[in-house]
Each structure stands twice: as structure tokens, then as C-alpha cells.
């Protein structure tokens, strides 16, 4: 999906100054963002309270939306730079096209992983004939400076490793949990896992003390480290944990996001991640001049124009969380 915000404001992210070195329980409220005319997403990252969790720098939760009588998701071709996108569905399906020639339908609990590297463009749409409900998350992972100019590529992994415990089924999206590792390519120490809990589950999930973590709730009612978490909200957990207590009041769907705190400071604007104002301005003008980002073939509609850059140079907004 895309950041369709027409009032896109640059955000400075990253750097260890943001990271909490000890276990905390910080509840992050979503910001409601309109996507197109009818649909709305809940944006958890970047958040006024927190910009990143490891290399995870963008988290939108959407649905479940009844799209039986509607076209559903229709995100026209748009560019990305300096990041990976993770498409994760609980219900429905998304047809992905990109400028490397990919044409892939992504289904629930399959990983659609797009590495933009220096430049890619893509579109995402509900197939013409689609399931009644659409429910998922769109996440971005920042690429480190050493890899942000890499070649663009798209991976689709329909078979992901699963770790189970009584009442818990954890699908490993990126990185590893308890010895099971996702086949998805990663560029920093990171983890993403889908946690399906059965009502009454009371389990402890092993964690890496050097990682910072957050848990996004997608459905049901669960307690994460004792904190009740409702769908569309996220709990930031800090670092220094070796395990995470999870309890389910009803069947519940959570996403665990974590990673080594992201050291580098970066500039995030619209669908781009760079290291400077110049990076961002260059990417914007390349997209508007139809260079560098390639072409998405087969999408029935126009591509997205970039919003205007705010006047004046990007200014450091300090370490305000
Ligand atoms: Mn996108």
C-alpha cells in the first residue's frame, strides 16, 4: 500500500536516542488516515509517541472491511525508495504488480515482501472477483545505508515456518522466533511474527533481550504483558526482555514486531526513505519525470502524483517522541 497522505510531512526517524533500554509498556494509539474515498486505515507507525521499532518504520492496520459490493483496495502505481514493504493479510487477497515485472496475488498468511532498494514502483488492488472481507497490515522496514541502493526485487513466500505452543500458533514473517526462521530477505537483525491465540491461551513467547519490541493487535482481546490490547492499537515493549507473557480473553490475532534498535538517522517523506533533503527531493522529481522508478504494467488507471514538498529545507525536529 501507499502513503496516500496529501499533506505528507517529513519525519526524522532512527537513532538510539529514541530507544527505551529497559522493558516498558507504552500504549500507542492509532491515527486514522483516509485511503481513497471509502476506506480508512489505522496508522501506528510513525506515531507521535514513537517513530520506529527496530527497522520497522511504518505500520498501517486496515479492516476488516466488507467489500462485497465495492472495488476494495485500489492503490495506483507509486514509487518507493530505501525500504522494504511487507503485505500481511488475515482476510481477502491483494493483487500486486511492480516495475520488476511481478504479478502476484497475496493471500492470508502469505508473505509479500518487496525490497525497493534504490527505486521501484508498484500497484496494489483487490482482484475484480474477491472475498467479502479485507483485513490486513501494511508494514515498512527501513534499509540500512549499506543496502539502500540495492537492486529492487519482490519475494512471495506462501510457506512460512510455524511455531506452536498450547493455544498459540506463531507464523514467522521475517527473522526468527525460537529457532524457526522466515525465508524472507532481511538487511538488519529484525523479527516479525503473526500470533494466532486461541481463547484461554496463556503462554510465554521467547524474546531477544537486545531487540526492542512492539505488539500490534489485529483482532480479538488479548493481554500482552498484562496490558489489555484492543484491535488497531499497539503496545511498545522496549528492550531487555527474554520472554513475553500473552493471554487471550477471546480468539485473538496479534503481530509481534521487533529488531535491533536502528542506529542510523533517516528522513522519511511520502513513500521514500533517504538520508537527506536532497535524497528526497531527487526521488520526488525522478518519479514526476518518469525516470528511475520503472513502469508498472497492466494496472487499469493512472499512476499517483507525488504531493508537494513542504517549503524550505527539512529541519531536524529533535528527539521529541
Ligand atoms: Mn506501496
TrEMBL record:
Q: Where is this region: Disordered?
A: 302-321
- Please report the stretch or stretches of sequence annotated as the Pirin N-terminal domain: 42-141
Q: Which sites bind Fe cation?
A: 78, 80, 122, 124
Q: Which residues form the Pirin C-terminal domain?
A: 193-290
What remark does the entry make about the cofactor? Binds 1 Fe cation per subunit.
Q: Which cofactor does it need?
A: Fe cation
The keyword Ion transport is annotated on this UniProt entry: no
Presence of keyword Metal-binding: yes
One GO term in the molecular function aspect is:
metal ion binding
UniProt keyword list: Iron, Metal-binding
**What Pfam family is a match, any one?**
Pirin
- What PANTHER family is this protein classified in? PIRIN (PTHR13903:SF8), PIRIN-RELATED (PTHR13903)
State the similarity comment: Belongs to the pirin family.
Q: What is this protein called?
A: Pirin
Natural source organism:
Streptomyces dioscori
